[in-house]
Design goal:
Layout: H1 14-23, H2 25-46, E1 51-59, H3 68-71, H4 88-100, H5 102-112, H6 114-117, H7 123-133, E2 134-138, E3 144-150, H8 153-211, H9 218-244, H10 253-274, H11 290-324, E4 330-334, H12 347-372, H13 379-387
Antiparallel strand pairs: 1-3, 1-4, 2-3
Helix pairs in contact: 2-12, 5-7, 8-11, 9-10, 9-11
Length: 392
């Protein structure tokens, strides 16, 4: 059939278009309804529904049986995080990291045999699909929401509750591992301090017996005690800085404050060693007799190691307690339950959009044909259009 011959015609107004659509309203209604039903059935049979189950939780406040701030009373008011992270925000960040980790996703794959369920051959493909089905978000109230999407509502709830349980277990393991490392560090330090303390006590006793020095005059004693106290404070500050440095950066205010205090104590010790200012009652150490200096060194070591022992022992006991502690670290506000309504696909929305699209496309085609029809003069084309129902 040859292309239809056209002849010029008058332009079509908006009223003509509306009139045309009114005449074709039955056809438009049938097309829209057909598209609505067809698209709904298509989605219903070809796209399986997905369900989302959610659980809401908050981190529990961790309290230590032995408060570190009380242990370090007189040194500084600082709390060291032996077995738990400080601050709910930091805990939530840790929770997000654990939940998004490959280890957690792999545990879920093994627990629920997701390679078979997702019909995947390779683990990385399964993990990729699972990561898209696990949703993690933090509310403005610092609550953690964990959601899992699955084709089965029961499975979605089970997977969500499993990942919450796994999170709690993993955080406890991390806390215990940190406490164990602290215990081993403090245990070795405490053993070294005890050995050095016993050695210093034996050395002082032997020195007194060999030199027949059992007591020294008051001015020398004051100089020795003053220097010994400063050196003891210096060692304690250095110890505190080394412990704090395991958790805080060098730019943190606590570390900077300890650095300033250490420098000040070192400066005063150097002045006591070499200088004697007018009006000072204490004699500089450089003017003390050699026996007094030896006595000072031995007695100073005893004071230092005794002070360190008093600090390390409670910390060591706390670390042992934290290592054995396995209490829950999260509080579940809303456990996951099987959802009653599907999460995806939105069948009604898809059907309505399809019906609307079919209606507007059909209306456009009718208008186009109406614009072309008056210009068609070929009888064969007119017969063809009548045959297919475009014109009567």
């Amino acid at each position: 059939m040859d292309m239809p011959t056209m002849e010029p015609g008058k332009s079509i107004s908006l009223a003509d278009i509306l009139l045309l659509l009114m005449n074709k309203k039955k056809s438009l209604a049938i097309i829209a309804a057909s598209a609505l039903v067809f698209s709904y059935l298509l989605v219903f049979f070809l796209v399986p529904p997905s369900y989302i189950a959610s659980s809401l939780l908050i981190p529990l406040e961790q309290t230590n049986a032995l408060s570190t701030s009380n242990i370090l009373k007189g040194i500084s008011n600082i709390s060291l995080p032996f077995g738990s992270m400080s601050g709910s925000s930091q805990q939530l960040e840790l929770f997000q990291t654990i939940l998004s980790s490959r280890t957690t996703l792999t545990a879920m794959v093994d627990q629920f045999n997701l390679k078979k369920r997702y019909k995947q051959k390779w683990m990385f493909e399964t993990l990729k699909m699972l990561s898209k089905n696990v949703k993690i978000s933090i509310s403005p109230e610092n609550a953690l929401k964990i959601s899992v999407i699955d084709k089965s509502p029961k499975m979605a709830a089970e997977m969500t509750n499993y990942i919450v349980e796994y999170l709690n277990k993993k955080v406890i393991e991390l806390n215990i591992a940190k406490a164990r490392a602290n215990k081993e560090f403090l245990e070795k330090r405490y053993q070294d301090v005890r050995a050095n303390l016993e050695k210093s006590e034996d050395s002082l006793q032997a020195f007194q017996q060999n030199s027949n020095i059992m007591e020294i005059r008051t001015q020398v004693r004051s100089s020795i005690d003053s220097y010994a106290k400063m050196e003891s404070d210096l060692v304690l500050k250095q110890l505190e800085k080394s412990i704090v440095g395991k958790y805080l950066t060098a730019e943190s205010p606590q570390v900077k404050m300890l650095t300033v205090e250490i420098d000040e104590i070192s400066k005063k010790m150097q002045e006591l060693k070499t200088k004697k200012n007018p009006g000072d009652v204490l004699s500089p150490l450089s003017e003390l007799p050699q026996q007094a200096k030896d006595f000072l060194r031995l007695e100073r070591n005893i004071q230092i190691y005794a002070s360190i022992s008093q600090i390390i022992l409670p910390l060591y006991e706390q670390a042992k307690y934290e290592e054995q502690k396995s209490i829950p670290v999260i509080q579940i506000i809303d456990p996951a339950i099987p959802p009653e309504r599907k999460f995806f696909p939105p069948r009604t929305l898809v059907a309505c959009c399809s019906a609307a699209a079919a209606f507007f496309i059909s209306a456009l085609l009718f208008v186009c044909w109406d614009m072309l029809l008056p210009r068609v003069t070929d009888p064969q084309w007119i017969m063809f259009l009548k045959t297919i129902g475009i014109v009567k």
